[in-house]
Amino acid sequence: MFRSASITINDLPVISTKEQLEKAVSELGFLPFFDSGIRGFSLKDHIDPAVWFADGVDGPWEWKTEVGVYGKLMRGKAVFMAPEWYGLLACYRRDGYDFEGMYEDGFLPHASLPIMNELEKGSVLSTELRRRTGMEGKGSGFDGIVNLLQMKCFVLPVSFEYAFDRRGLPYGWGLARYALSDTKYGSFIDAAEKEFSPAEAKELLIGRVMELCPEASRKQAERLIK
What we know:
43% helix; single chain; three-stranded antiparallel beta sheet; alpha+beta
């Protein structure tokens, strides 16, 4: 299931299409979007500048929920992952807990419960999720809690929805639509949890980072997947 990588980050070609990004994520297992703290280990380091936030050109920002698993999954930053590696990450991060157990043992804030309760009903646009949970103000902590739930592998953005101008063209950064991770990737999470302990999952993830990034230290790898 978790074969050795066929390439290292040093072998990654310049990425200029969604298909090339899909291939890279599949071969690597995971690829941070922005700076990861490890030299060369990010999409930003390997993207064609012509598609990197270029006006009128689709690039990785537009592809983000169309390539593997996407979310704020490492160091609170965006990462693309192959589904099987996401399952392994969930095995490690959940540490043997489901959401209820982690919440009841005090490892998640109280405000995470209404968010999860709403997502149990189906995917919800971020603005609507804020409204339903009463977390609409800037000081509500909504973004931080959603990011924490992503890091714990309970929640993911499944699409980004845009406003349209008078010409019918999308604009802005797009609003995230969130859903429970298990809705789409539960089979991968279950498979990883059946085969590996959280400690074994952690070692596989650390080993993968060091395999992909030959110059990285174990400390850097641990910091990235923590």
